[in-house]
Amino acid sequence: RGAGTVAAVDLGATSGRVVLGRVDGRGAGTLEIRQVARFANDPVRLASGLHWDLSGLSRRVDSGLAKALREEPGVTSIGVDSWAVDYALLAGDRMLCEPFHYRDERSAAGVEAVHTIAPFAELYRRNGLQFLPFNTLYQLAAERAQGAQGDGGGCLGLADSLLLVPDLIAFQLTGERVAERTNASTTGLLGIDSREWDDELIERLGLPRSVFPRLVDPGETIGTLRGEVAAGFGIGSRHPLEVVAVGSHDTASAVVAVPMRPESAAYISCGTWGLVGVELERPVLTDAARAANFTNEGGVDGRVRFLRNVMGLWLLSESVRQWERDGETVELAALLAAAASVTAPVTVFDANDPRFMASGDLPARIAEWCREHGEPAPGTPAEFARSIVESLARAFAEAVVDAARLSGTQVETIHLVGGGALNELLCQRTADRAGLPVLAGPVEATAIGNVLVQARAQGFTGAGLESLRALVATAFPPRRYEPVAG
Length: 486
Ligand code: LFR
Known about the structure:
- Residues 266-457 form the Carbohydrate kinase FGGY C-terminal domain.
- It holds the Pfam family FGGY_N.
- By secondary structure, this protein is α/β, with parallel strands linked by helices.
- The protein has helices at residues 54-71, 107-117, 120-127, 136-149, 155-158, 165-174, 181-184, 199-204, 227-232, 250-256, 287-291, 314-325, 332-340, 362-372, 381-407, 424-434, 445-457, 465-475; strands spanning 3-11, 15-24, 30-40, 44-46, 49-51, 77-82, 87-91, 94-95, 161-164, 178-180, 214-216, 221-224, 242-244, 265-270, 273-280, 295-298, 304-311, 413-417, 438-440, 479-481.
- The radius of gyration is 22 Å and the shape is globular.
- The chain binds beta-L-fructofuranose.
- Beta-L-fructofuranose (LFR) is lined by residues 12-13, 83-85, 102, 249-251, 271-273, 275, 309.
């Protein structure tokens, strides 16, 4: 064991950050993190659809890392995580198009195309994934269909490699092309048993097998910083800095930093999405799990993230964006305080209704849902916020019950990590609706999980996830919310 400092790049769908993490695994152990850069991640609408501004993001990552290395020249490695499923296509070293955003509507056509070739029940047996219309395989099928029509979606035909977002950043830093396994598990093209690319499925879908790079596991070294990148960071002559694979799917990193006992706990990783489930040793591929739309994503150390995607704080942030477009100024803390003091009952809607997935006027869509179901629609922003929080809390509680039932886990506590842990009303109402205590925090679970997997690879900590989680529990004692009846 030892001590040292690593840098974590954590890109969320709403914002990105570069964080320094200092880990001392000796004795009782300590863990400290410090954010050195934070930047917005604003999607861009182009003629071809909704995209990420990946070029802009990678510039911000570079300047964040340069700052981190100026402030802490002793950094021993860098790790990168981001949201899942989205990818860049490259010809040689060149990115062919700005990557599509998973909320772009094109994937609907891809779903049909894929299910004609491989029905969902077969896919579930092969890849273990819940149905999400934007999973990479559907996006690729849509891309392939567009390319065949020659309407600008033809990047796939020109590409010689496909890199998921964190792997793209790692490539820009090191020149190495890899696919980190936890994130690759969200493509739908990784075998649930083999944990290798599903060559047969790739071929049946008419996708070019050669674009998929070699798989690596969290903890493996991806490569060292390219000379010109190191020079740009002002560390030219120093010992070559390593880029280490972490759980590059942000949810995989977040789950590492949940200070839980997996045999008796559920987790909610609550940011833009609410990922609700349990950690297992083996996948659950039953008809019941498929019908309940539970996913078996790859976790760090070969664990399984058995969970359901629940619409998360997106419902709130996209509503706030709409009110701002309408000329209102909305301050989140004040809005939540006002929501907490709403006393009249509000409508609890189905947070997972697919109509809430695309960007746009969410308050209008919530009101439309209420009208269709003969329920009163909220009126003021405070009532909307209360209705959103109640609806999320109910969807979270239901997913916890389902995860426990489907996996046979005796859930005694719910850990809620990510930005949602700051939302006291959401934590309390989740506890109330689940009838279980909610342990909230850490807020920066994703960056912490990224830091810890690097620290372990550098030999600073013990080997098991348990020892990593013990460090989290000491450094970031969770806040406890007891359920209140009613
Ligand atoms: C959370 C997340 C979810 C994934 C969604 C889209 O940030 O990574 O796990 O389903 O974003 O990639």
